[in-house]
């Protein structure tokens, strides 16, 4: 069994992943594997990966769903190879950070303390996950919100979104990468109309809930 599946176990997985990251020097992937994964997804040879391509590259490297989600959440957009490598082996945190012009202790530095860091980072990850889940449960975008997202992404105005645009739209409304992957697989080489995009979003919202949170009808706020 691939040990990375432990990282997707509810609650416990936050701490097993944090422990792995706490000892990242012992689990570093060979540079050759990193180059191959990046090149396979950079099909247009642009030197950059979109968030969707980044997620797929990490899957090729055997990363857990939780690792993939954390990586995608941590980047604002496309990543080059250097940033890709950094995601696989994060740089050391500084001891201080600036709040305005005032330097204050960087509490995340504690994540790098052997053993203790696995506890602090795992707890931070768990709390963040619960907050995200609460946002999914208590907020459903209206049809007006979804149409605005759809039009923003439909750059050529043909009334359809390609796969990358669908993925971007789903992320904009909090959809998890595991659910986005399912939508991408279902789409194949097809594009999506607004109704198909809306249907996919509501389905993925249910699927994005962790096993310990019951699914609820996502109808509030719909027009």
Going by CATH, the architecture of one domain would be: Orthogonal Bundle
- Which structural category fits the helices and strands? mainly alpha
Identify the strand order in the major beta sheet. 1-2
Strand content: under 5%
Alpha plus pi helix count: 10
CATH topology of one domain: Recoverin, domain 1
Q: Can you tell me the CATH superfamily of one domain? A: EF-hand
Give helix % range: 40-55%
- What overall form do the CA principal axes indicate? globular
What is the typical, i.e. mean, pLDDT?
A: 78
Order of helices and strands: HHHHHEEHHHHH
GO molecular function: calcium ion binding
Keywords: Calcium
InterPro entries: CML21-like, EF-hand-dom_pair, EF_Hand_1_Ca_BS, EF_hand_dom
Pfam families: EF-hand_6
Give me a quick take on this structure.
One of its GO terms (molecular function) is calcium ion binding. This protein is mostly helical and about 220 residues long. It is about 55% helix and about 5% strand.
């Amino acid at each position: 069994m691939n040990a990375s599946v432990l990282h997707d176990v509810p609650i416990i997985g936050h701490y097993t992943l944090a422990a792995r990251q706490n000892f990242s020097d012992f689990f570093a992937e060979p540079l050759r594997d990193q180059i191959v994964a990046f090149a396979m997804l950079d099909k247009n040879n642009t030197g950059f990966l979109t968030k969707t391509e980044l997620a797929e590259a990490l899957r090729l490297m055997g990363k857990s769903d939780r690792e993939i989600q954390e990586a995608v959440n941590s980047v604002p957009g496309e990543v080059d190879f250097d940033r890709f490598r950094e995601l696989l082996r994060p740089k050391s945190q500084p001891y201080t950070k600036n709040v305005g012009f005032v330097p204050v202790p960087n509490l995340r530095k504690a994540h790098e303390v052997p053993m203790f860091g696995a506890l602090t980072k795992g707890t931070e990850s768990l709390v963040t996950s619960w907050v995200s889940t609460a946002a999914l449960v208590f907020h459903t975008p209206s049809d007006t919100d979804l149409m605005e997202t759809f039009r923003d992404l439909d750059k050529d105005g043909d009334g359809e979104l390609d796969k990358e645009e669908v993925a971007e739209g789903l992320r904009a409304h909090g959809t998890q990468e595991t659910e986005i992957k399912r939508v991408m697989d279902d789409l194949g080489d097809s594009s999506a109309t607004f109704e198909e995009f809306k249907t996919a979003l509501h389905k993925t919202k249910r699927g994005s809930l962790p096993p310990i949170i019951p699914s609820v009808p996502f109808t509030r706020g719909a027009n």
